[in-house]
Amino acid sequence: MSPVAIAFAFTLFAGLATGIGSLVALLARRTNTRFLAASLGFSAGVMIYVSFVEILRKAQIMLSEALGAKTGAWAAVGAFFAGIAFIAIVDRLVPESGNPHEVRGPEDMVAGSPLPRAALLRMGLLSAVAIGIHNFPEGMATFVATLQDPKLGLPIAVAIAIHNIPEGIAVSVPVYYASGSRRQAFTYSFLSGLAEPVGALLAFLLLQRFINGAVSGLLFGAVAGIMVFISLDELLPTAQRYGEHHVAIYGLLGGMAVMALSLLLFL
């Protein structure tokens, strides 16, 4: 399989994990919030560790080779914070009422919910749009990282997939209680994850002609910034709202340890 096909496959896997979240919401009477908290913390640990220890370091090496040591170091740091600025702007475009990282589980809405069906359906659809906006740059990040180094791409794809599970819950729960249709709720949740492979496709179409050492370094730096922002702004706060603070932190440390071990095994 070609590197491009592998990158698309990893990105598709990560994006469609929203469907797993939908199944969790539709088939379980209650959400296992402690497990979700630990999983989200684990995902954040993986992404933070790999961003600082591996991806940002590789960005600096690539840019130093292309631009010189001092200029390359400045460029790597600039790309890192540019990635943070980019995902922060995207995050600000999403209305608070449609924030896909608000804690929702199947127990949060029941058939007798005080919200009217139209409001519930609007909440679900707005969450789907919000998730699409969030997942678009995540898909670009997963694709670029995998294209440069599949060994890095796999843990990133798994971390993003874990991150997408509560997003699937956020879409499917209100749609289900508004429509009464599990199929419709699953479909909207599943489709919201397609924004990630669409982001990957756009990255491929726009950047394939311009990829060189310097561009790859800048992209790697931006990817590191995007993933650190996602971890600190979305994953950890959501993990702590789902469960105990310590559960989220233990998951974070576990993710860092697993990522560190995996990198050492591939030395």
What's this entry about, in short?
The chain is mostly helical and 267 residues long. The protein has ten helices and no strands. The chain has one domain.
Mind explaining what this structure looks like?
The chain has 267 residues and is mainly α. It has one domain (3-261). It is built from ten helices and no strands. Helix 2 packs antiparallel against helix 7 and helix 5 runs parallel beside helix 8 (195-207). The two termini are 23 Å apart.
Structural key phrases:
single chain; 267 residues; mainly alpha; 10 helices; 0% strand; globular
Give a topology summary.
Blueprint: H1 3-15, H2 18-27, H3 33-67, H4 69-92, H5 117-148, H6 150-179, H7 182-192, H8 195-207, H9 213-242, H10 245-265
- Strand residue content: under 5%
Give the biggest sheet: none
What is the average per-residue confidence, as pLDDT, rounded to a whole number? 79
Radius of gyration: 19 Å
What's the oligomerization state? single chain
Helix content estimate: over 70%
- Please mark out the parts with pLDDT under 50 across 5 or more consecutive residues, or reply none: 100-115
Question: What is the β-strand count?
Answer: 0
Class derived from helix and strand content: mainly alpha
Element-by-element helix/strand order: HHHHHHHHHH
Count of helical regions: 10
